Amino acid sequence: MNGKFQIFNGSNKQYYFRLKASNGETIGHSEGYIAKQSAENGIASVRANSQSDSRYTIFQGSDKQYYFNLKAANGEIILSSEGYVTKQGAENGKEAVKKYAPTADVEDLTSAAT
Questions:
Q1: Which of 21, 48, 86, 106 is the most exposed, having the fewest neighbouring CB atoms within 10 Å of its CB?
Q2: pLDDT digit string (tens) for 85-94?
Q3: What's the mean per-residue pLDDT of the chain?
Q4: What is the DSSP string of 41-107?
């Protein structure tokens, strides 16, 4: 099974996307977008930038968990990870993005949102 992107509405009526691994675990999520097309463009940017190691930043948050961000060529963060207990966990998450993002299906959950 492949990973998948899901587009959904947040409680603030903005559009978001998340990337899920084949096991259903969320690997990362986007910022909020006003228009669904912008979220779709964000997915395309994740696909385009996911294979370049130089686009990733791994860091430790104030909660002592490790995270990564994937940035576009312009430096904007296009995907932020979930928290990981170890730096290796964040590295594994980054590798999962590289594995799943290029071919992940897109599931639009916005029509089901209330």
A1: 86
A2: 999 999 999 9
A3: 94
A4: HHHHHHHHHTT-GGGEEEEE-TTS-EEEEEE-TTS-EEEEEPPBSSHHHHHHHHHHHHHHTTT-EEE
C-alpha span between 35 and 98 (Å, rounded): 26
CA–CA distance from 22 to each of 1, 74, 87, 109, 114 (Å)?
Answer: 5, 29, 22, 18, 27
Residue 86 buriedness (CB in 10 A; 0-12 / 13-18 / 19+): exposed
pLDDT digits (tens, 9 = 90+) for 60-76: 999 999 999 999 999 99
Residues in Cβ contact with 2 at an 8 Å cutoff, skipping those fewer than 6 apart: 22, 100, 103, 104, 105
Q: The pTM is what? A: 0.92
